[in-house]
Amino acid sequence: MRYRQFFDDALTRLRDERRYRVFAHLERDAARFPLATWHHDGGAVDVTVWCSNDYLGMGRHPAVVGAMREAAARYGAGAGGTRNISGTSHPVVGLEAELADLHGKPAALAFTSGWISNLAAISTIAGLLPDALILSDAANHNSMIEGIRRSGCEKQVFRHNDTEHLEELLRAAGPERAKLVVFESLYSMDGDIAPIGRITDLARRHDAMTYCDEVHAVGLYGPRGAGIAERDGVMAEVDVIEGTLAKGFGTLGGYIAGDTAVIDAVRSYAPSFIFTTALPPAVAAAASAAVRHLKASGEERARHQARVADTKAALLAAGIPVMANRSHIVPVFVGDAEACKAASDRLLERHRIYIQPINYPTVARGTERLRITPTPFHDAARIAELTEALREVWRALDLPTASRYAAIAAE
Ligand SMILES: *Cc1c(COP(=O)(O)O)cnc(C)c1O
């Protein structure tokens, strides 16, 4: 094929920039979570996964798997088409009611992924406001940036979690201009948390609408697992809450919750909602089961936070440079792309521990890291095993210790 060279060149560019991604071939084991079988070079070995976004292990929860199995047997494997063509399946109706209730909003709308929900919702909401100005946090996720881009609206970026900068921009825009403030509640690479109450206060004072991505918080925070806004008692102040069903809820899909007119407008105008096949009933049923379970049970959340605290304490005591935050993310500083990949490889090959390297463009160059996400299933023995493994890797590769990292961070 005469066009092949273009693709080869594109891949070479990625390799030259050390950005070429290699996916580990992993077979998750529901019965032995967080263990998985790693397939490589014709062999297969058990590894402990330490970087899953199935934060609570809900993907293997008997109630969730049972709901999926039962719904698949009852309704079949697929949705049968878009909701326009096939109607809305019974489990999706139930799921949307569950999600609206979770966030204390009158309505919710489910999408095939969180990524699509941000693209569809942000572009449609901003696009329906006359001459809207979008104020976007500098650290917002790719899916939000794509939604902003697609809206065609003017965008101004405020410094990450900087409410003074946000206020400046709100004030400069003036009271007449339609304004949409777009931000996340919990940023997944640093694990830092947005001052949601301060942001919604400002938005109210300057008559702006707010849109908050709670993807890394739903299921995990708040008395019923609705996220950081619920935990902070400001859920009612956020106009639109976006979440995923694929992380804390362990399945697949995304959603928004908010005012009925807003939700109905997105349902009616967003091509990435209208022209794609709906979530399969079995996925919707499984997601509903996860949401329902975590509304009633705080046990997973409590154990999760305890394991996270234990992991951070153990690593810090071993001189491993944990990047400080107040969340369930345990980022460990490496500061170099090559070294980060080498550390990840050594953990996997020598220690049977899987932690994917996080390099540019996911994080800024010079802040490359391992992103560790303990679950309620990472017990004391596993935490001790992880600590020893990291100690060995840090020594072997001469990686920055906690004290060297503190010096770098202070610069
Ligand atoms: C993962 C992620 C998404 C996308 O959610 P999916 O359900 O995985 O498509 C959206 N926002 C943020 C901040 C994310 O990290």
UniProtKB/TrEMBL annotation:
Transmembrane segments: none annotated. Residues 46-390 form the Aminotransferase class I/classII large domain. Its cofactor is pyridoxal 5'-phosphate. One of its GO terms (molecular function) is 5-aminolevulinate synthase activity. It comes from the Bacteria. InterPro entries: 4pyrrol_synth_NH2levulA_synth, Aminotrans_II_pyridoxalP_BS, Aminotransferase_I/II_large, AON_synthase_class-II, PyrdxlP-dep_Trfase, PyrdxlP-dep_Trfase_major, PyrdxlP-dep_Trfase_small. Pfam families: Aminotran_1_2. Pathway: Porphyrin-containing compound metabolism; protoporphyrin-IX biosynthesis; 5-aminolevulinate from glycine: step 1/1. One of its GO terms (biological process) is protoporphyrinogen IX biosynthetic process. It catalyses: succinyl-CoA + glycine + H(+) = 5-aminolevulinate + CO2 + CoA. Gene3D superfamilies: Aspartate Aminotransferase, domain 1 (3.90.1150.10), Type I PLP-dependent aspartate aminotransferase-like (Major domain) (3.40.640.10). Its EC number is 2.3.1.37. Keywords: Acyltransferase, Heme biosynthesis, Pyridoxal phosphate, Transferase. Belongs to the class-II pyridoxal-phosphate-dependent aminotransferase family. PANTHER family: 2-AMINO-3-KETOBUTYRATE COENZYME A LIGASE, MITOCHONDRIAL, CLASS II AMINOTRANSFERASE/8-AMINO-7-OXONONANOATE SYNTHASE. Homodimer. This is 5-aminolevulinate synthase. It comes from Lichenibacterium ramalinae. The gene is hemA.
